[in-house]
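notes to self, project folder thing:

trying the whole complex as one job this time. last attempt i did each chain seperately and stitching them together was a nightmare. two parts in total, labels are on each line so i dont mix them up again. if this works i'll redo the older ones the same way
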Amino acid sequence: MMAQLARLAGTGAQSGRGSLGTDISAAVLALVAMAILGNLVEEFTAFEWSLWAIQAILALSLVLIWGYGGIFSFGQAAIYGIGGYTYGFWAINFADNTGETLTAVVAAVVVGAAFAALLGYFMFYGNVTNVYVAIITLATSLVLFAFVNSTSGSEYRIGDAPFGGYNGMTRIPRLTWRLPGGASHELTRVQFFVVCVAAGLLIAVGIRMLSRRPFGRVAVAMQHNELRTELSGYNVRSHKLALFTIGGGIAAFAGALFSAWGRFISPPVFSLTPAALVVIWVLVGSRSSVAGAFIGVLIVEGLSSWAGGADGNNEPIVLGAILVFIVLFLPGGVIANAAKVWAMTGSQALNRWSKPPTPPEAALRSQPKPGSSVFDWMTEANGVRSNTPIATRNVTKRFGGITAVDNVTIDFPPTGVSCLIGPNGAGKSTLFGLLSGQYSVTDGSVLLEEQNLTKWPAFQRARQGIGVKLQVASIFKELSVRENLWLACFALPHNRATADDRAEQLLEWLELGDHAQNPAGTLSHGQQQWLEIGMVVATKPCVVLLDEPTAGMTREETRRTGELVAQLGERASVIVVEHDMEFVRQLSAPVTVLHRGRLFTQGSFDELSRDERILDIYLGRE
Amino acid sequence: MALDRLFNLGFDLFSGISILLLVSIGLAVIFGMRGIINLAHGEFIMLGAFATLSGVRSGLNVWLAMLVAAVAVGIFGLVLERLLIRRLYGRLFDTMLATWGVSLILVQVVDNHYGSVTEGIRVPVGSFTVGEFSMSAYNLILMGAAAALTVGTFTVMRKTRYGLLARAATQSPTMAQELGVNTSLINMWTFGLGSALAGAAGALLAPLVGVIPTMGHTYVARSFMTVIVGGPSFIAGTVSASGLLGLVENVATNRFTPVIGQAMLLIAAIVILRFMPQGLTGRRDTR
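result (full assembly):
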C-alpha cells in the first residue's frame, strides 16, 4: 500500500499534471462544442475558422520540437509548404482515378517527415549547436522560396501538375474520401472544419501523451542539459532526429490540409512572413503547452482579422513589433504569464512542469524492502561484467596546437578508488573526457576489459558502464531531484517501475528524500554534487569518474563525500581527480600524478608526499 | 580552353567571392565578437543600398553617396544597439527573434516609403575586354573594396586600442570589466562597426543588383552560412569560407541556374558543418 502510494507520488512528479483520461475528455468536449458551433454559424465563417485550426496544427509542430525538445526551427512553415505542394501534386495526378485525396495527405506527411529527417540528420549528427539549427532552417526556407519561385517554366511539372512558379499551383482538389467500391464524397465546408478541429485536438492529445512517455521526458531532459542526458546513456542525437521528424510530419500534414482548404498553394509559404508567424503564434501562446498553440493562433489571427484583415500592407510591421515586444516584455508567452497570475489565486492547471502538491511526508519515502539497497543492483550488474578494468594505451589528445594529453598508458584496477592529481593544465579533465567519450582521441586507444571503446560515442560508453561526474555539477536544475534520479535510472533497463524504485533507493542513500520534490537547482552546492554522484550511480557504472567531487564543499560535506566514494569503491573502479590533498589522504588510495599531459609518477599518498619533484611541479619550480 | 575564356571564368569567380565576402564581413564582426545573431543583417545591407540611392537622387556624387550610406547605416546600428540589442546580450534566441522582428519592420517600412520597384544606379565606370570577353570594371572595384574592408577590419581589431579592448571583452567580459573597460560601450561600437560594414556592402552592391526592399533576403542566408562555415577565427574564417562557398556557388550557377547555385551553396555548407561542426577554422576534434 505504502509502496503504491509512493509510486503514485513518484510518477505524479515526473509526468506533470493531468492524465490521458482528462486530456481525452477535454478534447472530446472541445470537438463537440466546435462541431455544434460550426453548424450554427454561416458556412463561410466555419470555412474561415478551418484555416485557424490548420494553423494551430502547424503551431503544434513547433511546440513539439521547440517547447518539448528545445530545438528551435524557423523551417516549420517551409515543411508546411512542402506538405502543401506534395498534396497538390498527388491529388491532381491521382484523385481522378482513385476518387479520394486521403492518400495525398499521407503522401504529404511522408514527404514532409522525410525532408525533416534528411535535414535533421545533417544538423543533429553534425552536432551543430541549436543556434545553427535555427539559421540552417531559415536558410533552407529561403532557398526553397527562391527555387519554387523560379519554376514558372512548363518544364517544371510532376505528371499533370505544374509548379506554376510565383503564380503557385491552382485547382488542387478538395479533401475527398471514398469507401472501397463506393462513391466518392467531397467534404462540405462544415465537415472539413470539424475534421480540421478533430485532427488538431488529436495531435494535441498525442503530444501530451508523448510527453508523459519516457520519450517525452528524455526530450525535456535533453532541453535542460544535453550533456548530462548523453552521459546518462541516452542517444541525444537520435532523440532530436526523431522529434524533428515527427514535427516535420505534423507540419506537412497541416500543409496538406491548407492546400485542400484553399485549393491553391504558392511560393510565399516559404517566405519569411509565414516563418515568423508560426514562431509568433507559439511565442504568444506558450512554447511549452499544447493549449498555447491554439490560443496563440486565436489571439494573433483573431486580432489581425479584427484589425481589418491580414491583407493590409502593415502586417509585417505589426508582426515585427509583436516579436520585439514579446522578447522584451513577455518572455514565456501569454499563457505562462497568465498562469503566474492564476497561480497566485490557487489555480496552476496550465503549467505543465509546475510543482505538484506536496504529498504527506510518509507517502513520499518508500519503505526500503529488506535487503534491498542501492548497491545490490549495482553489484548485480557488475556480476555480469565482473572485473572490468578501464585502461588507456598511448592516448594522445591535441586541441589545435596544444597537446593536452600526451601518450598516456594507464591501467585502473577493477574495484577500489584511485586518485589522479596534478597541477592545473596537467590534462586530468581531458583524460576523463577521453575515457567518457566527451572528447575523441587524437591517437591511441581506450579499453574497457579488452574491449576497444576508442570510437564509441559518450552515450554508448555510459550504457557500457562508464559514469562521469563533471567538475561543475551537471544536473537538470529545473527538474525535481526525483526526476533527475529517475531519468538516470531509466536509461539502462528502460523500465518505468524499476526506475521508480531505484530513484527512491537513491534518494534514501543520498539522504535527499526531504528535497525530492524540489527543483534540483535549489539544492545546496554540496547536495548538487551528491545528486550528480547519485545520477552516475544510477547508470549502474563499473567505472566511476569523479572530477573534483569536493570542490567548494564544507569540511563536513567533504567527509560525507569521502564515505560515498569509499562505498562506491567497494563495487566499482572509482577514479577521482582532486586538488584537496587532505581528501586524497583520507581516501588512502593509490595516486597517479599527471604533469603537462604526461604520466609523471604513481605511488601511495605517503610515498608521493615525500617526493620533492611533485612539490616542484605544484610550485612551478623546474 | 582559350586563355581569355579562362580569365573570364576566373574574373567571374572572384567577383562572386568578393560579393560573398562583402556581405559576410559585417555579420562576422557582430557574430564573431559578440555572439549576436543579427537576423536583420540582410536589411542593413538593403538600407545601405537605399541610402546610396537616396544620396544619388539628391545629387550626391556616387562614391560619396556610398560612403555616406555606410556611415548612416553604422549610426543606425549604434542607435538600434542602444535601444534594443543592449538589453539582450547573452540571450541568444531572444536577440535572434528581436532582430528578426526588426527585419520584418524594416522591409515593410522601406517598401511603404520607396515602393517595391527596382531602381538602378549608374556608376561612371566602363568595361574592359580580354580577348572575346567584355568585363565590367566595376567588379574590379568590388574586389578591391572587399579586400580593403577585410584588411581594414583586421587592422582595426589588431592595431587599435578599440580592437584590443573589444577582443578582451569578447574573451572575458567580467575580467575586462574588472580592469576598467566599459564593455557596454565597446559592445556598442562593435555593433556599429558591423552595421557600417553591412551598409558599405549594400552601397557597393547597389549599382549591380535591383535595389528592392526584399533584397536583404537574398544575402542573409548565404552570409550566415559563410560566417558559420568560417568558424571561430572570424576574419580568416570568413575569407576562407567565402572562397570555398563562392567557388561552389559560382560553378553551380554557371553550369545550371543562379537558384541552383544558391541551393548548392546551402547544401555545401550543411555538409561541411556535418563533418566540421566548428567550421573551417574550428578545432577539428573538440568532440
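what i see at first glance: Residues 13-118+136-213 of chain B form one domain.
need to look closer tmrw
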